[in-house]
Input
Amino acid sequence: DTAVSQTPKYLVTQMGNDKSIKCEQNLGHDTMYWYKQDSKKFLKIMFSYNNKELIINETVPNRFSPKSPDKAHLNLHINSLELGDSAVYFCASSQARGTEKLFFGSGTQLSVL
Amino acid sequence: GENVEQHPSTLSVQEGDSAVIKCTYSDSASNYFPWYKQELGKRPQLIIDIRSNVGEKKDQRIAVTLNKTAKHFSLHITETQPEDSAVYFCAAAAGGGRRALTFGSGTRLQVQP
Output
């Protein structure tokens, strides 16, 4: 029974398209995150939600819009995809903000052609 | 915000040797320092963490040390095995949920049999 699940696992699309990635956690955690891992493996926080409320939004282009319909779900919608958006996107959750263990999803490999 | 620097970027050791990875952080308010292991094509997973009220923590073959005065912390792996080969990330966060975990740039550890 997967704790943090995200779909799809792979996403290949053309520049300019709009795409979404979905994430769900069944751990009962209050906080969820989106991290971006680039080709050099650098992990960078994008967004954090606590109980459906946006608490962290790190200098991410406004083409990226997170949505949290409830505290178990955090989706990521990306408009007008660019080549530089190609990366692995990880969803994660934790019991509390910031200073607790992160549980990562399996990642979504996004390739923009 | 927090800035975490990690060294070395790559590390190759012989099976049975020890490996040490070092990180420094910039925000003196940071009080939580986890280490994550990411195997090829997999999600990052927590292997050990330390909070600022202790200077050292050990779990079998892995240990972490923290020097708050110097703002650096290190991961020590003893008796390395081929299955230790992976990318290791250090991270830091301050309490209160002001910021999510900030990750270092990663160390690719290769254990030669």
